[in-house]
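[audit] Reproducing an earlier prediction to check determinism. Same input, same settings, fresh worker. If the tokens differ from the archived copy the diff job will pick it up downstream; this log only records the rerun itself.
[audit] input (759 residues):
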Amino acid sequence: MSSRYNKSRVALAVATALSAATMGAAYGTGLQGKSPGTYVTGDFHNHTTCSDGSISMQKLVKKSTDKQDTPWGLDWFVQAGHGGNGNRNCTLAEDATLATPAFPLVTKQDGSIAGPTTAWSNSIPAVLPKGTPSNGNCPAGNTAPCPNMWRWQSVQEYQYPVLEYLSALKSKPLFIGVESVVAGHEHTSMSVITGQMPSSIFKQKLPTGPGYAPLGNANAIAQWEYCFDRGDSDKSRGNTVVGGAEGNNWDCSVAGSLNSADPNWDAVAQKLVPLAGAGNGERGHAKTVEAVKWMKQNHADGSYYVPAHLERAGPFNPNGNNGFNIEHLRDLNNAGPRISFGMETQPGHGASSERGEYTIRRNNISGVNVDSVGGTTYGGTGVYGAQIGGVWDALLGEGRNWWFFASSDWHNRGMFGPDDRRTSQDFYPGEYQRDYVLVRDRDRHGHSKAKDVLSPQEIVDGLRSGNSFAASGQLIDRLAFVACADTRLNDWLGNLLLETSTFLAALNNTDVNFGNCVTMGEKLVVRPGQEVVIAIAVRDPSGTNYSPYSFANPSLAQVGISQPLNKPVLDHIDVVRGQVSGYKTPNTPDYAGQWPSNWITNPNMDSVPAGAKNTTASVVRTFSSSNWKRADGQFRVMTFRIPHVNSSQYVRLRGTNLPASVPFETDPDGNPLPDLFTNAGQVNPSVPGGNDGQPAGVNLRIPCAAVGTTDFDGCPAHMPVINGQKMVAFDVAAWADLWFYSNPIYIEVRGGTQVAGVN
């Protein structure tokens, strides 16, 4: 059979002409009857000046969702800043281009613009924070005092109305989330969508003058933030003053828990406040598990809790608030499997001097500067997601619903302004990384809501389903990936039917919906010994991506490949398979395990504890131009069979623009190497005050030699220079090294190990 797929070929024409019913009959069970679905792109972790970002809500929404001025515009967007507090008014816009009738530009008495770095107390009129008083340093240009506003008040009273209005004005699915400051750990991306963005907002007549009265509310997420965010030390119960009764009067009790009988319970605040001192991390983790229980009890369908850049702060610290070990992920998933269902292991900050802000010796724990888990990122992904056979595979090997996510973690452009295409810190949501999530119409009859806008519930349901993939740098932008029980047709025709259906699904940006087939986040149940067919179709988009750089990729130049940074080409796709052995039992030896602290110098899986690895996981197929088929120029289609399936297992995908054995990027097996070799920042000493630190640039290895007339057609001026040679770092390093990851498909054998986490 030809390696080129073309719709004009007779075989494909015949297969395309076959009806869905014919295909379903061939695969044994007929149509599954799923709701129609489309893959849509989004981001749920980013920042404005309401926390520690650099721009307003209006500007971030425009940058993230506009498809003209910023062509990377996303289909859905969650505005999420840090929990805790802040003293800047992010609802004020920077300039007239961002002004709207309901939220016009605000000017001071001297005629200057009161922008999003204006303190709440310096706003016009002044805004007085509620709850326990908390003073902050005044932002530049503001006059003291500049008290902090608790995040619950900011979300409930100021951010939500602006975002609801913008959602209605732009007909865009927008809602509020929080990057929680986690008790016992570092950060988590979360939301409680109850009350947010009711469909009626798209049917109303919007105001033509200042002011907007929201039809929905963010009360639920505001309460969660007050009750469970480590950064929120307010004791007011969401009221105007501590001890008063005017306001929310929140009680943070969790049914079935100790609550007031817990020694960590604060009677005034009506919430858990973990006691300081030794064991604070353990007590904090216990509070975080309570947070997930609360979400399950009160907002089971309307919430999510996804640990963010979870390797960054190092391993778990029982006496502090640092990272997550695998047992903590298991605890969270056990407490709320429909709420804590994945990890943000492909972090933002992709253009930082330390990619993802992961680095060796990053955080001080008990007087020692410890590495981010894994030491750094690997092709922009943390070691928990990047290492085959590691933490992610260990969780999948239990049959858990634990999905892979990416985020922008937008704050600023580093040494550049927010409108510059160059960056030495962050990419905008959608510009570099994006989550592709299949969102199904919940009523199966097409959208009935005004203006056909997706709801927050549909988006959260999509995230929860696991039917998603993440890609950086627009390496791919379509994926159809299915596992099917063997057909009653011969292998050639059966494969052709499935390849055709998979190609058409990718072409239409939906999933395959016929026969005894499943896709990402689902499980296929087969009889012992049955054969399973795997089909994959991806689009490697032609033309340019959103990189501003047109010079040749310096990483590929090392191996004689000339490929513009803004025209990446998918080099290969790996299929990873692992066996499922069932859930681990809490408090048993293989339930817990800390990733080795010396991984950057000794990346040896033998040193990984049994509870944090899955030794059955491996690459079982690699597809490239030598063995995939081409369709319509941009699509790559591939099929293989797993014969005689006698044990429960899973398959997942990863792909990259880099071939194997690219110096300082990939090893001989095509695995990503540590990003340490493109990290430009200085490295801390091993002990605070020590003398074994490393200067900036010491680990850089890849020359950036392209010469142009501008910073865009030649190696840009902000690349670090070592011995007179520009070296790859910052945003160039990110655009050079692209990866995508799919979520898994499970295969459960009747009578074998149950894939308990997936229905």
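[audit] rerun output stored. Observation attached for the diff report: The chain has a mean pLDDT of 93.
[audit] end
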